[in-house]
Amino acid sequence: MTPIRALVVDDSAAIRAVLTRILSVDPEIEVVGQAPEPNTARQMIKDLEPDVITLDVEMPGMDGLSFLERIMRLRPMPVVMCSTLTAHGAAVTIEALRLGAVDCIAKPKGSAEELARNGALLRATVKAAARSAVRPSRSARPPVVATTTGKAREDAVIAIGSSTGGVEALFALLGAMPVDCPPILIVQHMPGAFTGSFADRLDRECRIHVQEARDGMTLAMGNAYIAPGGEQHMELVGAAGSSIRVRPGELTSGHRPSVDVLFRSVATRRGPAAVGAILTGMGSDGAEGLLAMRRAGARTFGQSRESCVVYGMPRAAMELGAVDKEMTLSAMPEAILAACGMRQARVGA
């Protein structure tokens, strides 16, 4: 098997060395070059033709976002952003993911155990990025719902799980939701320092209210709740399944928060009143939970291969028999709203 050719771009020589060492442990990855800034990286891309780039968010000369935008416009290719876990770094990383970066990772640091764990994640992310379906950057705004003449059933709730490529997908999907849509619960795999910034950015650009979930929140129509990343799971709780619990817990399906944990709680609390959607992402988190939802009578949808950045989670759910219907991302808002009872929803520009 031909190794994946990776180019490491970072202004810190120490970080370049650490990333190179981490990636080179895997025989399936070959680091073909290191670049300290975008101009050097641009020439190395031409000369070395890497399969994947790891890109620092903040660099001298040309910042990472400007360089990424140029890459995705002129020569689309898999890019993994390498960010510091700061409020500014998180906001910039969210914009990078929206511009078309496949995924983001935190810059490696900490104990030997943390470095080993982060290293394994970095290698898996780079390999997933190399297999991803990268598309040119889209500057157009996501579609919005033009009209919704049907009314959702009062006990309806929407549960969504996503990972690699999910940031861009969620901007499109939530951007198409009307202000009177049912409550939406979302698990998107990303570092805990990023989920607050992600929710804030979605809230500014969507007509619904989007926020990072907190323990004890009560569900409300026209609201979306993003599970906080890091050390906790998000569940639907209460006799009527009307509130959110955010709790510590062990990794489930390799993740925390886990889509499976969310979906299983929704299956238990809302059953046939729920709608589940599994979006782009690597791995299989969410497949078992979506099957539980389907068995409880919920409608379940999976993002189609051709519209996924990484067709991993939806494929696992399809193979398990958890998906009622697979469809493109652009068709999903209308299908979800119809399943909630808003049967005359029309999605337009």
UniProtKB/TrEMBL annotation:
Main location: cytoplasm
Record's subcellular location: Cytoplasm
Entry annotation: catalytic residues: S163, H189, D285
Modified residues (4-aspartylphosphate): D56
Keyword Cytoplasm among UniProt keywords: yes
Highest taxon in the source lineage: Bacteria
CheB-type methylesterase domain residues: 151-338
Pfam families associated with the record: CheB_methylest, Response_reg
SMART domains for the chain: REC (SM00448)
Gene3D superfamilies: 3.40.50.2300, Methylesterase CheB, C-terminal domain (3.40.50.180)
Protein family according to the UniProt entry: Belongs to the CheB family.
Family annotation (HAMAP family): CheB_chemtxs
Protein name: Protein-glutamate methylesterase/protein-glutamine glutaminase
Annotated source species: Sphingomonas mollis
